[in-house]
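Revision sheet: structure tokens.
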Amino acid sequence: MKLNIRVAGAAWLWMNSTADIIADVFASLWYNILWDIEYISVIKWGTNYFDINISDTEVSLSKYADILIALDDKNLEANIKDLKLWKESFIIANNKWIQKLQDEKNISFDEYNLLPVEINDTYDNTYLIAVFAKFLGLPIHILQEHIEQVFKKKWEEVIEKNKQIFTHIFDNYILPFSSPFGEIQKRKKKSVSYGNKLLAYGAIDNGLAYYSAYPMTPSSTILTEIINSKKINYLQAEDEIAVVNSALWASFTWVRAMVGTSGGGFALMTEAISFAIQAEIPLTMVLVARAWPSTWTPTFGEQWDLNFALSPSFWDFDHIVLCPSSLENGYYLASQALNLAEKYQTVVIILTDKQFAEGKGSIGELKKALYERGKFVENPANDYARYALSEDGISPMVEIGKKWGEFIATSYEHDEYGATTEDSLVKKKMTEKRWKKLENFYKKEGIQGYEMINQDAKKMIITTSFISYTAREFVKNNPEFGVIIIHFLKPLDARLLEELKGKEEVIFVEYNYSWQLENYIVKELWLKFVDGLKISHMRKYDLMPFYYEDFEEELLK
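Predicted:
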């Protein structure tokens, strides 16, 4: 079974709770869930919706809804266009909104399958969910359990009123037609979570001890999850400059630290990134991309920040950029990023986007990286040199306060002890030392920077982040295509070049106008010089995510 349910309404109409209940109920029945939320920053007059995609196999984002649950007239009108063919889709709404659009806007609903509800109190959400549940044959006891969970902080009479509405609808509402979606299977429960939460807990579960952030959509909920965990120290500072410098201080004292932000905040952090590289202070950063340029469309998703993450400051240095491709992968890479920052004493950027950050879904087993801290001196000798030259470019760190462990961490060029210098030979050696760190990175780590599906296909899609969910289902249904999902953007795994030799075509799929992923990988791997390889792309920059239908329309036409 595949089903896309759209919950649409104004921001103050408890949309989140409605969508949460629907998603959690289906996860309780062992279905795969993947949702996308779209909302505008002009909150008062906005049209907003959740798309909850449900499947018993692979799950992806669909452009069109099978069922629209509309909480007001404006969102009912705005979302009719995204329903599937009228004979195959259904509208559940308060009857007064249907009547209003008929009377005031002359909108005809004759071609739609309507499940109208007469509602005379303020519990619209509960009535609509109850009709939806009866229509699909969902177990009433599971719904009432979720109602209790959602409203557990409310008065008992509120919880009881919601339960009574469910009982009333199940006993009295007459369905105008039966559900065409088949029997809902009743199986064991799956867990549900979302991207920012899994990033937060992946880091927490691998030793994160300090987090700092200034709220900025769509990265803000990482801070929310950190606070709610009650497990680590955090700082919501007055601006992003204070945020990143407080994290540098924490890391300098050998505390695992992480910051989170979006593009505008990241721009303010670039000087501190240069400091961290020069002083070799580990720093893990989460950069959640949103639509640009400047500040407008801040609540929508695009991938404008890839080039920014690859070159966040002055160019003559090296660092690491990771890109989670699934919710489970986000949990793992967050834990791995902390290890890599300390092992290589550098900046590690976890690059995600709005769809990943706020995308919710059912999750499988979560795995984290083993805890590693790199070169660490427990008892330094009296000639301890913090920036000692070494074969691999990585110098031994020491916990601040240890006897003989004093050193200077400066933004200036320095010698092995941290003392400022402008000696040309020292400058040359220190630059070479810092560049050595990431040489042979994949061999040293024993990992692969990408994942391949349908490896033998002649046409390969290359993509990142949340697009991976939809790309996976597309290549499953169209085996003449394969997909390469990039997990490590920098350093780029050069073995990918050999994988592409002998292919007919690579198609780069990304959310931006300027082909940032394509330009980067083509340049790094010299793909233009691979005999017989056609290079093409599929781009979106209209604020909307990639839907399964986009893949079909563009790649199968």
